[in-house]
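Worked example 2:
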Amino acid sequence: MEDKKTDEHEKSSFWQRRKERLEEDKKAKSWLREWVDALVFAFFAAAILRALIFGSYKIPTPSMEQNLMVGDFLIVSNLTYGPRTPMGICVPFTQWCLPGVKLPSTRIPGFRDVERNDIIVFNVPHEIKPISQKTNYIKRAVAVAGDTLEIRNKVVYINGEEELNHEGLQKHYFLKMNDKVRLSEAKMRSVGAGALQNIPGGNDVFIDYIGGDTYLVNLTKEAVEAIQNWPELDSLWLSMTPEGETDRGYASTRSTYDFAEAFRSQDNFQPVVIPFEGQEIELNNQNWFIYKDLIERYENNRLERKDGKIFINGEETNKYVVQQNYYFAMGDNRDNSEDSRFWGFVPKDHIIGKGFIVWYSHDKGVPRFNRILKLIE
């Protein structure tokens, strides 16, 4: 009798222990599943937020210095101009997309259109890739659709008026010192001069000795005014690119882009209207370089020139109606920026968003606390 009770007790204990183990396993699996579910939800929620509301971008080049610095991390508002719907089947937080898959895309209405002098993030037009996989650039929209842009000796004119002098706008100058007076980088930094060359992991270059007491420097308007008061200064003048050539930093660029062939140099542009939706362009053998990429690559037509005649999609014509708005983007660090002066207009469907705030910044690993949470203007 006692043996029977003992057996029953052991069986009861066995099933009790088994039940407890199952409950513990269930709790462990439940805890793990909750974490996995939370992580998956957070991943896709962040991906949706990044695509539709805002994105984070890093400044890799000095083209916008001194307004945006190498090492700045930005929040970019997609809502301002309206977010784009997905253009392909892509892995979130990467630019990898399923090859050959192109989705019909549109732009959800935003708060407003791109305005003159906005700092914009966009997919660089000239790359031969699907739009959303092109490299992200950030520049200033110096001219918008319908504006007439002209550049005379590095001075930009919009609709006949000189552009605003944005704080931090820089250009290259030649600076000649009085006989035997040496120019130091420390002195250039003291007036707020910009770097001529940014050296990753090393010291940036602020002056370039040309010879004969003459240096090449990178200056804002405020720095120019300060230097002009130096008693040791002999003369100061803008560095100009000869007609038909391009800046030494982009020696191969001019032959790469058809757009640049239409202009004397990046420092001198004859007046050109920034294309706008519905505009009828009159094409000729002198201006077809300007619109070649627009017609062929951005609006998917076949443009040919034979025996002095222009053909679009096999039909002879001298007119073309633009299908979307375009913008002219330039870096604030004018002589260290590859921008619309070289590869042309930025199509509206390449626009990602508007620069909003610098959420973090560092200089070669050292935090720039004065730039953290700095609004972008």
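The two ends are 91 Å apart (CA to CA). Residues 141 and 329 are 4 Å apart (CA to CA).
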